[in-house]
Write a structure and sequence with these properties.
CATH architecture of the largest domain: 3-Layer(aba) Sandwich
Mean pLDDT: 93
Strand order of the largest sheet: 4-3-2-5-1-6-7-8
CATH class of the largest domain: Alpha Beta
Radius of gyration: 22 Å
Strand content: 15-25%
Shape: globular
Length: 442
C-alpha cells in the first residue's frame, strides 16, 4: 500500500509532539498498547536495525512479534510487521479505517470539532491496535522523533534501549548532545532496564543521570557491553554471556554496535524470564537485513539511507574500507527541511562527483536548489533531475554509483530496480549526458 486516503489527509499536518492526544485516545480504545510486552528503542541512528535484530531473534525463539518502525521506504505496510513480515494491505486498510472511525467518535465524545491525531500518531495507534488483535507476545517499538514527547512513549516497556546519540532534529530536540540525549532518555521508565549503545561521553552521562534518578538498571558499553571484530566475525558480550564468530548480513562497523545493543536487549529479556537460547539469538542476528542500509543490489550500485551527519560518517567509514573504483559518483537527494552540507561533508573524499536528484516524496528538495546549496564545496557537482532519469544515466557513466541522502530516495531506487530501470545496463563507460551541461564547479 503506497498510501491511504486517511493518511493523505493527515500528511500535511506535520509533526506535533506531545502525549496527551495519543494517551487519551488509546484509553478510549481500551489501551491496546498495554496488552503485550514492549521493547522500546530510541536513538539518532541505528534504531531500525536494532529493532530488526531483536525481532528476528525473538521470532527464531518462537515468539509472536509485532514491530513498529518508521519511516517506510516504499510502502506504509513496512511500518507494521508481524514476525518480520509487513502487514498485508487488507488488514492495514481495515485497521486504518477502524482507528479513523474511533478518532471521530472520540472527538464527538470530548466535544472536539476536529478529530485528533497526526499521521504518526494515527499509525502508532494502528500498530498498537493490530498488535492487540493478533495477540503478539512482544511488540518491538521504534521511537519516531526524540523520545520524551514521542507518541510511542505511552508504552510501559519491559526493556528500553538507546542506540546512539547524534546532532539531528536540533530545531526540535535541542542544539547540544546533552540536550538531545536528555530528550531521548525520556523513554526510560522507573525500574525498567535500559541498554545503551556506543556514544559520546556527554550523551552517556546525560542518560546515566536520568537512569539513576529513575532507578532503571543500566547496561553501558565498556562496563557491561563489549564488541570486537575478529577474522571469524563479531564477538559480542554482555554480563549474560558471549556470542563469538557472529556473521552479520548487514555490513558496516556500526552494525556491530547495533547488534550489540540488540544482544543486550535480548539478554535483559532473558533475565526477565523470556526463553531465548543462544542458537535463536545467533540465527536472528545473522538473518536480519533491511533494504537501504549499505545495500548492493546489482554490481556497480550502492544504496544507503544516510540522511544526517552520523549516518554519513558511518557510510564514509565503510567506503574507506572498500576498493576505490576509478569513478565513483554520488547521486544525492535530501529533504528540503535539512541542511545538506553536514551530510555531504564526510562523503567528499570518497566520491569523484556529486549529482543531485529527487524522488517523488513531498519533502524532497529540488535538484537545482540542492546543487546551489552545495556549490561552495570542493567537488565536481551537477544538478540532475528526477531519480527515474538520473539513476540510469549516472549508472551508465560511473564505475560505481552511490545513492544516499534520504531513506525515501533509497526506497524509490529499490522500486525502480524492481521496475527494471537498470536492466540490460552495465556500469561505467557510457557517454556523458546533458547533466554535464549544467555543471556547477565547486
Amino acid at each position: 500500500m503506497r498510501s491511504h486516503r486517511v493518511l493523505d489527509g493527515l500528511a500535511a499536518a506535520g509533526v506535533r509532539l506531545g502525549l496527551d492526544r495519543i494517551r487519551q485516545f488509546l484509553t478510549a480504545m481500551g489501551e491496546p498498547h498495554r496488552q503485550y510486552a514492549v521493547v522500546h528503542v530510541a536513538g539518532t541512528n541505528g534504531k531500525g536495525s536494532t529493532c530488526t535484530y531483536v525481532t528476528e531473534a525473538l521470532v527464531a525463539a518462537g515468539y509472536r512479534v509485532g514491530t513498529f518502525t518508521s519511516p517506510h521506504l516504499e510502502h506504509v505496510n513496512e511500518r507494521v510487521r508481524f514476525d518480520g513480515v509487513p502487514v498485508d494491505d487488507g488488514s492495514l486498510a481495515e485497521a486504518i479505517e477502524a482507528v479513523d472511525r474511533a478518532r471521530w467518535d472520540f472527538a464527538k465524545t470530548v466535544g472536539l470539532t476536529e478529530p485528533p491525531l497526526t499521521y504518526f500518531e494515527l499509525m502508532t495507534a494502528v500498530a498498537f491496535h493490530l498488535f492487540a488483535r493478533r495477540r503478539v507476545d512482544v511488540a518491538v517499538v521504534e521511537v519516531g522523533l526524540g523520545g520524551r514527547l514521542d507518541a510511542t512513549n505511552v508504552v510501559q516497556p519491559v526493556v528500553s534501549a538507546i542506540t546512539h546519540i547524534g546532532l539531528d532534529h536540533m530545531e526540535v530536540l535541542g542544539d547540544t548532545i546533552e540536550a538531545i540525549a536528555t530528550e531521548k532518555a525520556g523513554i526510560i521508565k522507573r525500574g525498567v532496564p535500559v541498554v545503551v549503545g556506543p556514544m559520546r561521553q556527554a550523551a552517556r552521562d546525560a542518560i546515566s543521570n536520568i537512569a539513576r534518578r529513575r532507578a532503571a538498571p543500566l547496561w553501558l558499553p565498556g562496563s557491561h557491553l563489549r564488541r570486537e571484530l575478529r577474522r571469524g566475525g563479531w564477538a559480542l558480550a554482555t554480563p549474560e554471556g558471549t556470542l563469538d564468530d557472529l556473521k552479520l548480513r548487514m555490513p558496516g562497523l556500526h552494525q556491530g554496535a547495533n547488534a550489540l545493543v540488540a544482544l543486550g536487549v535480548l539478554h535483559q529479556l532473558r533475565q526477565l524470564g523470556f526463553l531465548i537460547e543462544d542458537t535463536a539469538i545467533r540465527e536472528g542476528l545473522e538473518r536480519a537485513s533491511i533494504p537501504g542500509r549499505l545495500q548492493r543490489p546489482v554490481p556497480g550500485l550502492i544504496i544507503d539511507g544516510a540522511h544526517n551527519v552520523d549516518g554519513a560518517a558511518a557510510l564514509a567509514l565503510w567506503l574507506s574500507r572498500q576498493p576505490r573504483p576509478a569513478n565513483r559518483i554520488l547521486v544525492f537527494g535530501h529533504g528540503h527541511d535539512r541542511d545538506p552540507i553536514p551530510t555531504v561533508l564526510p562523503l567528499l573524499e570518497h566520491v569523484d562527483e556529486i549529482v543531485t536528484t529527487r524522488c517523488a516524496h513531498p519533502k524532497a528538495r529540488d535538484p537545482m536548489d540542492l546543487a546551489l546549496a552545495l556549490q561552495d564545496l570542493d567537488v565536481v557537482l551537477a544538478a540532475g533531475g528526477d531519480i527515474e532519469t538520473t539513476l540510469p544515466e549516472i549508472f551508465r557513466e560511473a564505475d560505481e554509483t552511490l545513492v544516499a541522502g534520504s531513506l525515501y530516495l533509497a526506497g524509490a531506487v529499490n522500486s525502480l530496480l524492481r521496475d527494471g530501470v537498470l536492466d540490460d545496463l552495465e556500469p561505467g563507460g557510457g557517454p556523458q549526458g546533458e547533466l554535464r551541461e549544467i555543471q556547477l564547479d565547486g
